[in-house]
Amino acid sequence: MKLKFSTLIKILIILAIIAYGFYVYWINTDHSTKSADSNATEQTAINQNTTNQVAVDDTKNNKIINTLALDSKPVDDTNSSSADYIMEKLNLHAKAALLMDASNYRVLYEKNGYSEMPMASTTKIMTLIVTLENASLDDVVTVSKYAAGMPDVQLGIKAGEQYKLGDLVYSLMLESHNDVAVAIAEHVGGSVEAFAKMMNTKAKELGCNHTNFVTPNGLDAENHFTTAEDLAKIGSYAIKNDEFLRITNASSHTFKELSKGRTYTVNNKDRFLQLMDGAIGIKTGFTGKAGFCFVGALERDGKKFVSVVLACGWPPNKSYKWHDTKLLMKYGLDYYSLKNITGDTKAISSIPVTDGQDASVNVSYKLSEIKLLLNDKETSRIEYDIPNSLEAPIKKDAVVGHITYYVNEQPYKKIPVYATDSVKKINFIYCLNKVLSSWFFQ
């Protein structure tokens, strides 16, 4: 009896091993079939649910690529690029110029936009940003001898005088007073040097990697520079702050010195606010080294632009900066329109799994609606970088792929694709249970 029982156990073990081998073969064969079916189903769903969409099965790269073509107007047959063609039409005076979509920092036009250059009093945009984010406008500022000794343009503050910080910021931005800029910097940072470090820290935070601040007023100084792109980023960030805009858009401001009661009235010198409908700022600048500079901002018809012109002429050509700024803004308004880039959120619901205790894993992702300012020559598409199959084990919430928005063949936004469940790898116990279940529960 003992011999028969042990023999039976051995036979069962041998059968289980054979069953495991057959089961693994069957699972893999079944998966390959399901993989083909799943891909066919996916392609059918994509073709049915997505309008103007071309699906390509790129087996070499083991990914599915979807290209969404935006509705666009006919493109002319000029041999020159859009940038070259428009550059000729703009005929800018500035040595460096740039137009940016303020909502996402995308560069729409640039001329030497990445060259490091001095920026004069447009520096004060960052001075105000750092001040608003690190001090209370109710603070009382005591003027130092050093601040009072700054060269023109001056408010004429004197050492020992006291002012409310909320008044000085108008003097800083509306009439660009250099003595006030230093008084503010010393109050907020403790010293000009410490305040400059705060400015540079904020610049790096905004992705301005080719900017270095030495002074809070923008007077010519060694190693004080930026680029048109970096300055546009700073301007785009600044106009998101309602307090910043309230100050820079004021037509005038009257205030008093707190100890002796001297009264001042400062008036806004930004002519651009009256030059174009929708103009919202921002800041002028001039030094002998930097030339005339201007950072402009305009919001109209759902579009928000920030423009920068640097080294835009020297005296007597003070009006060049307004000419160039208007051309840049008009270019943005005329050549760019808001277009939606959308994707089908139900195109892919699962991915086949090899060597897994489940045949597939469900996936989730969120394709948000994206509105971009695009001109008629620009292209966009969505690429689904999702494998045709995955190998177990797979953890829940693991990133199993990506969906990338491209504009002009450059990545614009990447969205992760997550596994919504866990899938365990096939093992001996799992196969044995499967075999025994098929024997005893048929």
UniProtKB/TrEMBL annotation:
Give residues annotated as binding substrate: 283
Q: Quickly give the catalysed reaction.
A: Preferential cleavage: (Ac)2-L-Lys-D-Ala-|-D-Ala. Also transpeptidation of peptidyl-alanyl moieties that are N-acyl substituents of D-alanine
- Top-rank taxon of the source lineage equals Bacteria
Describe the location of the Peptidase S11 D-Ala-D-Ala carboxypeptidase A C-terminal domain by residue ranges. Answer: 336-425
**Which EC number(s) are documented for this chain?**
3.4.16.4
> What is the active site of this protein?
121, 124, 176
Give the GO biological process terms: cell wall organization; peptidoglycan biosynthetic process; proteolysis; regulation of cell shape
Pathway stated in the Swiss-Prot or TrEMBL entry: Cell wall biogenesis; peptidoglycan biosynthesis
| Ranges that cross the membrane | 7-26
Q: Which residues form a coiled coil?
A: none
What is a GO molecular function of this protein? serine-type D-Ala-D-Ala carboxypeptidase activity
UniProt keyword list:
Carboxypeptidase, Cell shape, Cell wall biogenesis/degradation, Hydrolase, Membrane, Peptidoglycan synthesis, Protease, Signal, Transmembrane, Transmembrane helix
Family under the similarity heading = Belongs to the peptidase S11 family.
Q: What does this protein do?
A: Removes C-terminal D-alanyl residues from sugar-peptide cell wall precursors.
- Name-wise, this protein is serine-type D-Ala-D-Ala carboxypeptidase
What's the source species' lineage? Answer: Bacteria, Bacillati, Bacillota, Clostridia, Lachnospirales
